[in-house]
Amino acid sequence: MSALIATRPSPAERLADLAVQALIDEADLSPKPGLVDRRGSGAHSDLHLGLMHASAQSLWPAFAAMADAARAEGEVSQALRETLGRLGRDGEAEMLRVTAGVNTHRGAIWALGLLSASATLEPGAAADEIAMTAAALARLEDPAAPRNPDSHGARVCRRYGVLGAREQAQHGFPAVIEHGLPQLNASRRAGAGEQNARLDALLAIMSQLTDTCVLHRAGLEGLERMQQGARTVLAAGGAASLAGRRQLRALDHAMLALNASPGGAADLLAATLFLDRLAPAAPAPIGSN
Ligand SMILES: CC(C)(COP(=O)(O)OP(=O)(O)OC[C@H]1O[C@@H](n2cnc3c(N)ncnc32)[C@H](O[C@H]2O[C@H](COP(=O)(O)OP(=O)(O)OP(=O)(O)O)[C@@H](O)[C@H]2O)[C@@H]1O)[C@@H](O)C(=O)NCCC(=O)NCCS
Ligand SMILES: Nc1ncnc2[nH]cnc12
């Protein structure tokens, strides 16, 4: 007689579960300006929600392998950086196979891969400590990484002199630690409701990120419109308020008119949700709102 044995997920499997869930939660969150969500494809002709879900699921083995590699190595090291680079590239190849060549989650593999590895090295650590360990990994050079001077990110960083996905990680994910997570928790405390709090976290990230996806499609005008528009929604009361919702609709229309989509901010929202689940903030003291 064969017995069904329920096995507990390993720590690496649990991290991969959290990373994939963060990507699915980001994709499902609606209404996001210019991005794929439950309403439709936003400013994209080659993406849809089902593809974002399939892409997220395809990355589970890569995230689990990156966490496992970190467990085996046990510390930040050149060898671990090189292994993560190889696993990240394998993950990208699998994503492109599943999406028939569409880049759905390149930036997310980079951010969540580094964070999955660093969360393994720092079990039980706070979000900012996990981000700083990820930064130490990102600052190590990977000699095997093919430099692509023609990637959208590389092109606009050169053209406009801005920092992109690489530097965001090397600096310890300031968009997540200083903007996404604090806004998520502040909106929750203000009673915004979970979906509105997540939208506010995305807007906080958009309000200051040099998102190379937006720069690539819509130049500095698009970037300025995104950052200013996101600030306006938050200043009007955020996604939970009527005035904020009106501004959010206006921002969505503006992003669609510019054919712009903040894919980098979306990836960093997923990183925010991942760290939030892993290292939840302590409840604020009574009377601190
Ligand atoms: C270091 C890498 C991240 C490579 O970076 P690079 O800047 O050279 O490359 P890009 O190919 O442009 O990818 C960067 C992606 O990062 C996201 N992003 C953008 N701005 C930021 C930012 N300021 N901070 C953080 N993250 C940011 C963004 O990803 C999302 O957008 C993707 C869609 O982009 P794109 O293809 O441009 O899309 P479209 O506009 O739709 O194209 P068209 O229709 O116009 O043709 C989507 O995938 C989102 O994820 C950027 O795309 C890193 O990837 C790397 O070196 N990898 C090697 C493996 C490795 O070492 N891994 C380490 C362990 S994980
Ligand atoms: N929801 C989304 N729409 C478009 N591009 C994305 N990249 C990551 N998440 C995305």
TrEMBL record:
Recorded GO molecular functions are:
glycosyltransferase activity; triphosphoribosyl-dephospho-CoA synthase activity
Enzyme class (EC, first level): transferase
- Is ATP-binding among this UniProt entry's keywords? yes
Listed A to Z, the keywords are: ATP-binding, Glycosyltransferase, Nucleotide-binding, Transferase
Matches recorded under InterPro entries: CitG, TriPribosyl-deP-CoA_syn
Taxonomically, the superkingdom here is Bacteria
**Reaction(s) catalysed (UniProt annotation):** 3'-dephospho-CoA + ATP = 2'-(5''-triphospho-alpha-D-ribosyl)-3'-dephospho-CoA + adenine
* The enzyme's E.C. designation: 2.4.2.52
Q: Give the function comment from the record.
A: Involved in the formation of 2-(5''-phosphoribosyl)-3'-dephosphocoenzyme-A, the prosthetic group of the acyl-carrier protein of the malonate decarboxylase.
Question: What protein family does this chain belong to?
Answer: Belongs to the CitG/MdcB family.
- Descriptive protein name: Probable 2-(5''-triphosphoribosyl)-3'-dephosphocoenzyme-A synthase
